[in-house]
From TrEMBL:
It comes from the Bacteria. Pfam families: Acyl-CoA_dh_1, Acyl-CoA_dh_M, Acyl-CoA_dh_N. It comes from Streptomyces caelestis. The keyword Flavoprotein applies. The keyword Oxidoreductase applies. The lineage of its organism: Bacteria, Bacillati, Actinomycetota, Actinomycetes, Kitasatosporales. Keywords: FAD, Flavoprotein, Oxidoreductase. Its EC number is 1.3.99.-. InterPro entries: Acyl-CoA_dehydrogenase, Acyl-CoA_Oxase/DH_mid-dom, Acyl-CoA_Oxase/DH_mid-dom_sf, AcylCo_DH-like_C, AcylCo_DH/oxidase_C, AcylCoA_DH/ox_N, AcylCoA_DH/ox_N_sf, AcylCoA_DH/oxidase_NM_dom_sf. This is Citronellyl-CoA dehydrogenase. One of its GO terms (biological process) is fatty acid beta-oxidation using acyl-CoA dehydrogenase. GO terms for molecular function: acyl-CoA dehydrogenase activity; flavin adenine dinucleotide binding.
Length: 390
């Protein structure tokens, strides 16, 4: 029986089947993917075959158009594998890069990118961040200049997850660099799909502290000619598209973080119960018991926050404040939990090869990616100050 007002027995059945499936699809391979720095194409195809890459996508492209909570369950289970790299890679592909294509509902883009992405035959990446423009998109310098029936793209994108293996990139570009009164800041942006194999696309992998299987790369577009029908939506509507989709991105990050925390707490539980000390086990000492109690309580509260934000989103609202709260709270809690887990596992947790160390490295990524905590605080704080709660 389900113990959540948001989840039905069907969701729980789905959870059990995803859990079993990811235990064979991801867990045995993930160490090797971490070493290789990417999720291989064979794994993407398996994930596509299982239907995991199209849970939220429409049936017109082979997706199963499930409710959002099916995806929340999937993301929690993805987090529960304990590997942040594949979790990030799959989230970016299935819920971030391809989400823009699903919303666009464009037959050309569906055929070329979204349908093959749902099948796991083509891997997607999302390229927004630049060396000179991170949290502040107004500094974005990558340009797409119209030339007949093509755009010519020039610029550099940094921290592109899946960059190493992606077959296509959803890229934020500046299509209207200037107005009479000066630079257009965050407006004048558009989203273009760029095939990774086009002449002028250069990919350079970067080493990161965590999420090592996510294929993070710097991508250079050096005069890349992109057919104009690869534009997503209308020209200059990129900022609006980004602002809408960022809410889902934050929700996805939060749901995956919940699963990561479940894994972390379970690893810690097993360690404390198994580690003998002072005539019993560490699990019998009051200090770890109280620490676990606090963290488990916070995790339970975080789950309610995330599920409530998902429920609001499912009602057709765009709950920007709740999505930001969910992302902020879960990803920061995940860092605290990972740190406590490492500490309470002593030297075993401090070994570089330990799961505790990997979980801690991975947790740090999530408070920066998809919007740093400080930006989330800014959004939440300003929204609260604007609105009376009474
Ligand atoms: C592991 C990882 C994966 C990523 N994957 C992708 C990807 O696939 N595609 C992509 O496009 N990008 C990706 N990013 C980039 C990510 O979106 C940016 O890191 C993020 O937007 C912040 O930009 P920045 O790193 O340039 O930080 P900056 O904008 O330089 O900011 C630096 C720091 O300043 C503080 N700060 C910034 N703005 C504010 C503010 N308004 N108020 C208060 N403090 C502030 C924050 O502490 C922030 O961390 C990824 C990042 C990481 C770490």
């Amino acid at each position: 029986m389900t113990r959540s007002v948001y989840l039905t027995p069907r969701h729980e059945e789905f959870r059990a089947s995803v859990h079993a499936s990811l235990a064979t699809l991801i867990v045995p391979e993930a160490e090797a993917w971490e070493r290789d720095g990417a999720v291989p194409h064979s794994a993407w195809r398996m994930l596509g075959k299982e239907g995991y890459l199209g849970l939220l996508h429409p049936e017109r492209v082979g997706g199963s158009a499930q409710d959002l909570f099916t995806s929340v369950v999937f993301l929690e289970e993805l987090g529960r594998t304990g590997f942040g790299g594949p979790r990030a890679a799959i989230s970016v592909h299935a819920y971030m890069a391809t989400h823009y294509l699903a919303v666009a509902d464009d037959p050309v883009l569906d055929r070329a990118y979204l349908a093959p992405a749902v099948r796991g035959e083509r891997v997607g990446a999302l390229a927004i961040t630049e060396p000179g423009a991170g949290a502040d998109l107004s500094g974005m310098a990558t340009t797409a200049e119209r030339d007949g029936d093509h755009y010519v793209v020039r610029g550099v994108k940094s921290m592109v997850s899946n960059g190493l293996t992606a077959d296509f990139h959803v890229v934020a570009v500046r299509t209207s660099p200037h107005t009479a009164s000066g630079p257009r800041g965050a407006t004048g942006l558009s989203l273009l799909v760029i095939d990774a194999g086009l002449p002028g696309v250069g990919v350079e992998p970067v080493r990161t502290l965590g999420w090592r299987a996510a294929g993070t790369s710097t991508v250079t577009y050096d005069g890349v000619r992109v057919a104009a029908d690869r534009l997503i939506g209308r020209p200059d509507s990129g900022f609006y598209q980004l602002m809408r989709s960022l809410q889902l991105e934050r929700l996805v990050a939060a749901a995956a973080a919940l699963g990561g925390m479940d894994r972390c707490l379970e690893d810690l539980r097993q360690f404390l119960n198994g580690r003998r000390a002072f005539g019993g086990t560490l699990a019998q000492l009051q200090a770890p018991v109280h620490r676990i109690a606090d963290l488990a309580t916070e995790l339970a509260a975080a789950r309610q926050l995330v599920h409530h934000a998902a429920w609001l989103y499912e009602q057709g609202e765009l709950p920007a404040t709740e999505c930001s709260m969910a992302k902020l709270h879960t990803t920061e809690l995940a860092c605290r939990l990972a740190d406590a887990s490492l500490q309470l596992q002593g030297s075993a947790g401090y070994l570089e090869s330990s799961a505790a160390a990997r979980i801690q490295r991975d947790a740090r990524a999530a408070t920066i990616a998809a919007g740093p905590s400080e930006v989330m605080r800014d959004l939440v704080g300003r929204a609260v100050l604007r609105t009376s709660a009474l």
